[in-house]
Fold:
Amino acid sequence: MGSVRPSLIDCDVHAVLPGIAALLPYLSDYWREQIAQTGFKGPVDRWYSARAVAAAATIKDEIPASKVEYLQRDVLDARPELQWAILNYDCAVETLHNPDAAAAVASALNEWIAAEWLARDPRLRASIVVPSQFPELAAAEIDRMSGRPGFVQVLLPVRSAEPYGSRNFRPLFAAAARHGLPVGLHFGGAPGNPPTPVGWPSFYLEEYAGMTGVFQTQLISIVAGGLFDTFPDLRLVLIEAGVAWLPPMLWRLDKNWKGLRREIPWVRRLPSEYVRDHVRLTTAPFDAPDDAQQLREVVAQLGSDSILLYASDYPHAHGEDRAVTELEFLSPAFATRIKCENARAVYRFEP
Structure:
């Protein structure tokens, strides 16, 4: 990293699983035999895989984020001020209905990341993949992986069969809290139910733009379910959620909590106070206005200079890297908090 002082932490970069064959060394004989006999291709997110393959035609047959060398070239070495980057890898484990298979694949994914990525670059950190649809098994995987070098977060798809504030998910969050790990809710997921309250959309554009509604639903559920009261040290990171939707949602939630708080007496403070203390959002995609003054107003409405974490979302393209360039409109101290200091606090990184 030369003489440049590390001053950037990237809280969302991706690793793409090239295929189920990559996991075979990390699976038991039983599961290797099952895969060979059944022709199982793996729980890889079909839409993302299709996009990656299509993109490969214009990048010399490279599938973006499929090798650590690509990540080093495009992110780690390209930003000499970068100190750490956190790997998130979406492989649709939540689509598996066999609980033993889901647990085995999640464990193999974590071992693959540890051996093929973390061990090859000290600047990398990673999230723990869990079979989120089976909370007891997810808790067991958190217990197994916690304390392993480089793993700093529990990863959940934001889409789930029921809201995460449900008591059915309590073992999962209890395990994360027990080990002091933040929980990252990441864009996407394929639990089998529609991504909207009124059924299936016709176009991906609808699903993509409407995913902020899923994040809102999950955040409301987690607050109303009392997770932050039950686990006072729980930290929640919303990844690829956007930003600008949060203030108006919190205004509405605070207002309605005042009238309906008798229904959830364990929620003792304004919902916005819990969010300010426990919730963080990554900057990519940064859905904010182009006007600098309006941008400052949106950021101010978030109510805290600790709530935003820098993320590139590599290799997903969002046009100009506004998350970096538009920080110049903020004070240098505020920009520094977003680029590195907030992440140090959330993930408890050493300076």
Residues 100 and 267 are 36 Å apart (CA to CA). The longest helix spans residues 204-224.
